[in-house]
Amino acid sequence: xxxxxxxxxxxxxxxxxxxxxxxxxxxxxxxxxxxxxxxxxxxxxxxxxxxxxxxxxxxxxxxxxxxxxxxxxxxxxxxxxxxxxxxxxxxxxxxxxxxxxxxxxxxxxxxxxxxxxxxxxxxxxxxxxxxxxxxxxxxxxxxxxxxxxxxxxxxxxxxxxxxxxxxxxxxxxxxxxxxxxxxxxxxxxxxxxxxxxxxxxxxxxxxxxxxxxxxxxxxxxxxxxxxxxxxxxxxxxxxxxxxxxxxxxxxxxxxxxxxxxxxxxxxxxxxxxxxxxxxxxxxxxxxxxxxxxxxxxxxxxxxxxxxxxxxxxxxxxxxxxxxxxxxxxxxxxxxxxxxxxxxxxxxxxxxxxxxxxxxxxxxxxxxxxxxxxxxxxxxxxxxxxxxxxxxxxxxxxxxxxxxxxxxxxxxxxxxxxxxxxxxxxxxxxxxxxxxxxxxxxxxxxxxxxxxxxxxxxxxxxxxxxxxxxxxxxxxxxxxxxxxxxxxxxxxxxxxxxxxxxxxxxxxxxxxxxxxxxxxxxxxxxxxxxxxxxxxxxxxxxxxxxxxxxxxxxxxxxxxxxxxxxxxxxxxxxxxxxxxxxxxxxxxxxxxxxxxxxxxxxxxxxxxxxxxxxxxxxxxxxxxxxxxxxxxxxxxxxxxxxxxxxxxxxxxxxxxxxxxxxxxxxxxxxxxxxxxxxxxxxxxxxxxxxxxxxxxxxxxxxxxxxxxxxxxxxxxxxxxxxxxxxxxxxxxxxxxxxxxxxxxxxxxxxxxxxxxxxxxxxxxxxxxxxxxxxxxxxxxxxxxxxxxxx
Length: 789
Prior knowledge:
Layout: H1 2-10, E1 14-19, E2 23-26, E3 37-38, E4 53-54, E5 64-66, E6 73-75, E7 88-89, E8 94-111, E9 118-126, E10 131-138, E11 152-154, E12 157-158, E13 163-164, E14 168-176, E15 182-187, E16 199-208, E17 215-225, E18 231-238, E19 250-255, E20 259-263, E21 265-267, E22 275-284, E23 286-295, E24 299-311, H2 320-323, H3 330-335, E25 337-341, H4 364-368, H5 378-386, H6 406-415, E26 420-426, H7 453-464, E27 469-475, E28 489-490, E29 499-500, H8 525-539, E30 545-549, H9 556-569, E31 575-576, E32 604-609, H10 629-641, E33 644-650, H11 660-675, E34 691-696, E35 704-711, E36 715-720, E37 727-730, E38 741-745, E39 753-754, E40 756-760, E41 764-768, E42 781-786
Parallel strand pairs: 1-24, 3-4, 25-26, 25-33, 26-27, 27-30, 30-31, 32-33
Antiparallel strand pairs: 2-16, 5-6, 7-16, 8-14, 8-15, 8-16, 9-10, 9-15, 11-14, 12-13, 17-18, 18-22, 19-21, 19-23, 20-22, 23-24, 28-29, 34-35, 34-37, 35-36, 36-42, 37-41, 38-39, 38-42, 40-41
Helix pairs in contact: 6-7, 6-11, 10-11
């Protein structure tokens, strides 16, 4: 009905129509200096190990490639015979481009060393000799266990003498340009160290500017749905013009035979050089081209979207092409902050030593049996603490959970400000905290506390904090379960590599086999243990997040398709992480004890412990070693500004008590988070930039404070990671117009303190904060731009 009304209204308003513009290729032929694609092992040397990608034609890429997330079209070289190069190793080259005005620059890029993220600055030079610097960062071209899903996924890679069937990837990068300036050249960074990793660029494509104030770049049907049950279609809108979209903004809908737009999207503020993605809710199913209707207050603009769209919610299948359409749901993108809990028999020894020799305490058993990798005195600690005859399973009776209060735990999670939690339901030791039914008796129902700990925690959450989403960490392999033997592996070459051998552990002092208590022998570990246990967590415990770990051999594809379908039937939108062993079944990346230095379009979640370097309880960590509230808040704000979520881990003791320092700092952080949550939860990244600096002017010291940006459809937030003082200057094109209000966001809710401001997007903004407005504020200081104009 709304769409019909819009069309009728168009008869009374000015109506314009135009087609969506396309990308402009930048020729790289003369710059190619490396060969990435081959047709057999050892044919070429993409990296220092003489490895390479396969021919892109095996995945249907022949000449050009269209991004599935941005709509940018690339000239993609592909395989060019046995000799000709096909990509650029960044060596500081300056690439001359056709002199025009462009809205953005996009690249297909990757780095070439396993486990190494590589970055460098790209410099864009305009015809007036002004420059723009943007970080070009790429994850490694292949990874094992924790998969970084690329824009382009290859099913394997060639080594120097074999084919490795772990996926390989090429990633996409985009930089926001000034659409009102003429671009002259692009200067690449210098990344030539083959040990630390090099950046390789396969293609550069420039998105052309137009005179319009709003330009549709991409229409992307998703398999997500609104609360009303309508399919979500994501529309990417650019403003390459010279004035801001303001006031009521623009309503966005889709016109197409067989489709109704029941929930139009709205963009209230979009200034020159900015881009936003807006969700619209549609009903119906159709295939074909569509018109995007941009409805302003006094005019309607119809933009023809020339690419074929396939609309309608479909059943999931185990085919990778189907599974690849799954993505993180809106609630996960909005949630931002979660708590992870590592708890199990490893909490009994609770030993990982201390910095700089600390290792994960939950890996205690493995380190004691792999001395070459033991940097934390784990072997000696076990001997002097428990004696030579003690076996890991002797920890079961001491894993009592005697002080475990499920309500106290979920109360603490809620008090921390978190919106979801992830409990370790089974770690690599194979000991489960849930009812594993007939797959194994190695669980907390049969040993230790003899309780269903997952059920108790989930039930307490559903009763006392029903809004909390509940997730299940689940280790796919088990270190020493002999049934996993046929699938056993090491992550890297050498005897110091982490490994999941799938053989009975030997007591490192007596040489005798250690027991694997509770094991039920099975025919096949994947079909009889792994997948059934994942299914139990999905259905019997109704997990919202399947948080896998160490996905090598797996049965994830069939599990995921069945889970996605059943969850949809229950009107539940669930999510799955990047560690389940199948690249296409990855809703979000999971960097560990790491963050990103620039925003990433693909959803990600950084996970780290409050302990300096352990997830499980580590008795060697002193009071001051744990993360404090200030760091929690700073990390959260930094991660959220770059399109990430923050999953913060606590490691309870074996009796279920939580370290007092962790609890205290979580509650302190929670006070800030609850008081300033509007600047965090439900926000989206600012496409123009994610960070900057504020210059303290009024204090007289001219000092700089780090600054992050977030936004909603109604407001824009400046989050200072240091106290900005009474007067602070921000050199950034903040979407702030005459008539807008700027206020201080105070944690105590003490009214709205109006902030005086002056300046412009071109010259920067000076903010003058009232005396006393910052009193009582700590950790992060927030200004809010309220869109009024």
